[in-house]
Amino acid sequence: MSSSPQDLSSTEKNHNNSALPSTDASEIFKNNEGKSPAQLQASGPDDKARFLELRNGLAGWQWSLFHLIVFFGAAISGYDVSNVSTIQLSIYQAFGRIDLLPWIVTAFSLGVSATSPTIDRIMKLVDLKWFTLSCWTVFIVATAVCGASPTIEGIIVGRIILGVAGGGCYLSLLSYSTILARPTEHARLTGLLGMGYAVGLFLGPVIGGSFAQNKHATWRWAFYIGIPYSGIIMVLICFVFPNVRLRPQEEIGKGLLQIDWVGAFLHAATLTLFDAACIFSGSTLSWRSGVIALWVMFGVVTIVYTIQQAFSLFTDPAKRILPIGVLSTRTGFLVMSASFCACSGYGPCTCSPYIGVYIAGAIGCGMLLPVVRRYAVLYLLGGILIAAGAGSMMSVNANTSLSQTMGISAILGFGVGLTMQLGVTVLALALPANIRMDNSITMTLTIYTGTTVSLAIAGCIFQNIGFGFLSDALQGSNLSNSQIHNALAGHESPVWAMLDPEALDDAISAVTKAIIRLFYISTVGGALMAIFALIMKWEALDFKHTKAETERGSQQAS
Known about the structure:
CATH superfamily of the largest domain: MFS general substrate transporter like domains
GO cellular component, one term: plasma membrane
Radius of gyration: 24 Å
Region (Disordered): 1-44
Organism: Penicillium frequentans
Largest sheet: none
Oligomer: single chain
Keywords: Membrane, Transmembrane, Transmembrane helix, Transport
Protein name: Major facilitator superfamily transporter
C-alpha cells in the first residue's frame, strides 16, 4: 500500500518503485474487456491504470475487510438516521421544547443532504484516505457533543455536524467502491451497503429505546454507543484503504477557490428552508403567521438556485455544485428520480418485518442485477411493490390484526430494499466514464435528500392532520393544544395515562388514521417510480469480466 497520494506522473513513470504491482498496457486492455462503450468513452488509460493498480495492490484479507467496512459504515449511518426516534420523549422530559423535537429527527439527514455536494468537491481535491479518516474523526466528536450536550439546541447542532461528517464518510465508501470494485463485485457491494443501512435503521430505535428506559445509562448512550464502533472502523481504514487523489492534476488551493460557493450556499439554504417550513407548518406556528413567510422564502431561494445552476452564474459550467453532468443524461436523471421515490417508503422502518424484508430486498438487488441486467425491470417491480404495499395500508384501522399490518408493510419493505441503493451500481456501470466518479455524490445526495424531504413532509402531515383528528376525538377531555401535541410525541407521553378507557380508544383510532395518511407519500412515490422505470432505457448492464480477472481474484482471495 502506498503511503502517499498517487498521481498520474507516478503511475506512468515509477511503476517499479511503487509498492503496488506494475501494470502494462496489454493488461489494461484485458481489464477493459466486457465493459460498455459508454464506460470507455472519454477516458484515457491513466486513471484506469491507477485504479487497477490500487485494486491489485490489495491482498485478499484487505478486500475482505473492505466489505466489513462498507457494511458497518453503512450500518452506523443508518443507525444515526433512526436512533433518535425512540428517545424523543426522554429528550423532551430533560429539556422541554417539544417544538424543537422534529429538528432532532431531521437534523442528521439535513446535514448530509445540505452539504454533501460541497463535501464531494473537497473530497476530489485531497487525498481520499486522509479525507475519510478526517470525516470519521469529526463524526466521533459530533457524536460525543450530542451525548454530552446540556441543551436541546446543542443536540440539534451536534446532529447537523454529525450529518455533515457522516455524508463525507458515506461519500468516501461509495468512491472507494467505484474505484476498487469490478462490475460483478460492485453489485454485491451495493447489496451489502443496502443491508448495512437497513440493519442500522432497525437497530437505531431498538438500541435508543433500550438506553432511554435504563435509568443508569439514560438516552445519552444512544449517541455514545457509536463512538467505539466508529473508532474500530477508523483502525480498519488505516490498514485497508489505499492513498489516492481523484484529481491529482488539480492544485488543492486553486481547486478550493473554484468551488461553486454561491451554489453551495443556495443549495443548503433551499433544503434548510424547506425543512423549517414543513416543521413549523401547523405544529409551532399558525398558518396565518410567519410560516407563510418561510414558504415564500423557500420558493424565492429555490427559483434563484435553479437560475444560478442553469446559467452557471458566479461559476463555470463544469464547476457547478450540482452533478449536472449526471442530471443531463436520461439514465442519470431517471435513476436519480426513481431512487428519490424509493425514500418515500422510509416512514414505517421501525416495523421488524419491514426491516427484515428490506434487508432481503437489498440482498436480492445484489444477486438479481447481474442476472437480470436490465435495471429498469427491478425499478418497475420495486415501484409496483411500494405502491401496492402503501396503498394497502389505507385499509388499516385500529382494529386491523397485527399480522395483516405486518404483512402489508413487508411488501412495502421489499420494494424499498430492492431499489433504494440500486442506483449506486447502475450509475457506476451505465454512465460515461468521464462523469463516473459523480456517481458517489449523485446517490448520496439522492438518498439523503429523499429521506430529508420524506421525513419533513411526513412530520408536517402528521402534526397537522394528527392534531386535528386527536382534537376532535378528545373534545370532552379538556386538554390544551400543548398537551395534544405532547400526546402526538409518542405513546410514553404522560397525557395518555390521563385518558379514560373510552377516550383512549378514540385517541388511538385518531392517531391511527393520522399515521395511515402518511402512506399516501409512499403510494405516490411507488407509482412515480414505476412510471420512471417505463421510460428508462431498457438496456442491459455489462457485468462481463475476463478470465484473467477471475483468476487474479481467486489468487488474491487465497
